[in-house]
Design goal:
- This protein is α/β, with parallel strands linked by helices.
- The protein folds into two domains: 62 residues, Helicase, Ruva Protein, domain 3, CATH 1.10.8; 220 residues, 3-Layer(aba) Sandwich (Rossmann fold).
- It contains eleven helices and seven strands.
- A seven-stranded mixed β-sheet has the order 1-7-6-5-2-3-4, sandwiched between helices.
- The termini are close together.
- This is Damage-control phosphatase ARMT1-like metal-binding domain-containing protein.
- InterPro entries: ARMT-1-like_metal-bd_sf, ARMT1-like_metal-bd, PH1575-like.
- It holds the Pfam family ARMT1-like_dom.
Length: 299
């Protein structure tokens, strides 16, 4: 797998769209928007041909600049609140429909169904209408790579420590049933959110807008606000948790871009390939869903 420099024209265009969206959400002041946009585009231009560069890495460098210039620490706040409300409704409706089928299902079938349900949540995206998720829930995902059985086998004995890296704010309602199930069958489950706002990812501050029963799932902060995970910028507590986990699952393309070249066999990535560069590098068709163990797919 390879999604690194030089940055493709598709990735650059996507970053430019993200910059435009972010500055628009960050302020109504046209002058500040233009200043922030210019500075963010300079960062893209400076970094795009650097070694080992991904779109996630570049975005993590221009978001703080936009926030500072526009004087807005969380440009996506209102959008996340709306995404949370919409996703909660869709997830609750879907779970109700699944309830009877899973009530007496074998453990492995329940595991697979709830893992797939979590995966569906990655259909959320800041360039999409959240209601599109409704259609995806009804139709079911096209999973091109499914190594869920490998995850299940790694969790065959109770007492494993599972670290789950969250993604978009609304996805939590799709992730939580799976995570609570893992806790119910005897595992220690940690759900990691961003330590500071970045894009529409779920962060520590967003938790005040979410009213759920976490059960035995422990919510932790990464201690940083990067797209995906840059472990060197995470808190000491989080790095210790990461190092001690038996299984690590990262949701979304940001985690694919930052963890996709890992040699760590504990790491699994769950995402929808929403753009051609990610689809091509992961070996699937556009908009396919993926559950992969990247360490065993290195080329």
């Amino acid at each position: 797998m390879q999604l690194k420099a030089p940055l493709s024209s598709t990735c650059q265009a996507c970053l430019e769209r993200l910059i435009d969206l972010t500055v628009t959400l960050a302020t109504t002041d046209g002058e500040l928007r233009e200043r922030a946009r210019r500075q963010a585009l300079l960062i893209v231009e400076k970094l795009k041909n650097g070694p080992g560069i991904t779109p996630a890495y570049i975005a993590s460098r221009f978001h703080p600049i936009i926030k500072a210039i526009c004087r807005n620490e969380d440009p996506f706040r209102e959008r996340k609140i709306e995404e949370i409300r919409t996703a909660e409704t869709i997830a609750a409706r879907a779970l109700k429909a699944m309830g009877n089928r899973l009530e007496n299902a074998p453990e492995k079938e329940t595991f697979s169904s709830l893992l797939t349900f979590s995966l569906i949540g990655n259909g959320l995206d800041f360039f999409r209408n959240p209601e599109e998720l409704e259609n995806l829930v009804t139709a079911g995902p096209n999973i091109s790579i499914n190594e869920g059985d490998v995850i299940y086998s790694r969790l065959s004995n109770p007492g494993a420590t599972v670290l789950f890296l969250g993604d978009n704010a609304g996805e939590v309602f799709f992730d939580l049933p799976f995570l609570k199930f893992l806790g119910e069958i005897g595992h220690k489950v940690f759900f990691a959110v961003k330590g500071a706002p970045v894009q529409n990812d779920l962060c520590w501050q967003d938790l005040e807008n979410i009213s759920v029963d976490w059960g035995n799932v422990v919510v932790v902060s990464t201690g940083c606000g990067t797209v995906g995970l840059e472990l060197e910028h995470a808190s000491g507590y989080f790095r210790e948790l990461y190092d001690g986990a038996d299984v690590i699952m990262g949701k979304g393309m940001g985690h694919y871009e930052t963890l996709g070249d890992t040699r760590d066999e504990r790491v699994f990535l769950l995402f929808q390939a929403k753009c051609l560069p990610v689809a091509t590098s992961s070996g699937v068709t556009l908009n396919s869903f993926v559950i992969m163990q990247p360490a065993c797919r290195r080329t």
